[in-house]
Design goal:
The chain is α+β, with helices and mostly antiparallel strands. It is built from 3 helices and 5 strands.
Length: about 120
C-alpha cells in the first residue's frame, strides 16, 4: 500500500497562477485602442495571460508582428514599475507604476498622426 505524502489541499494550491489585466486596466487600454483605430493607426489586438506577465499586443495588420506590446509584470512593481510599452524591435519605450503615464508615450503618437 502506497502512502501519499502530499495532501490534496497542497496540490491544488501549487497550480500555476496567471497574470491578467483587471477591468479598470483594460478600460484604459481599450480607450486608447479605440482612438488609435479611429485614427487609422491600429487594426487588431491580442491579449495573452501568462504565468509572470499579461501582454496586450497591438497590430497594424492582422497577419503581422505586433507594433507595440503593453506588458504588465507584477514582479517588477517595486523596482521599475509593473507596466511597460515595448516597441516592435523589443525596446522598452516607457516603463512605470501608473498605466496612464506609461501609455502617454502612445498618446503622443496619436496626437502626431491626427495633426500631421
Amino acid at each position: 500500500m502506497a502512502i501519499s505524502l502530499v495532501s490534496t489541499s497542497q496540490s491544488r494550491s501549487s497550480a500555476p497562477e496567471v497574470v491578467s489585466y483587471h477591468r479598470t486596466e483594460l478600460a484604459i487600454i481599450l480607450s486608447l485602442y479605440g482612438r488609435m483605430v479611429a485614427a487609422g493607426e491600429w487594426r487588431d489586438y491580442g491579449i495573452s495571460s501568462l504565468r509572470d506577465s499579461a501582454v496586450f499586443s497591438v497590430f497594424r495588420h492582422t497577419a503581422e508582428n505586433p507594433v507595440y506590446r503593453i506588458e504588465k509584470r507584477p514582479k517588477l512593481a517595486n523596482k521599475q514599475g509593473m507596466y511597460s510599452v515595448v516597441g516592435m524591435d523589443g525596446r522598452v519605450l516607457k516603463r512605470g507604476r501608473d498605466l496612464k503615464t506609461v501609455l502617454s508615450v502612445l498618446e503622443r503618437k496619436l496626437i502626431r498622426s491626427v495633426s500631421g
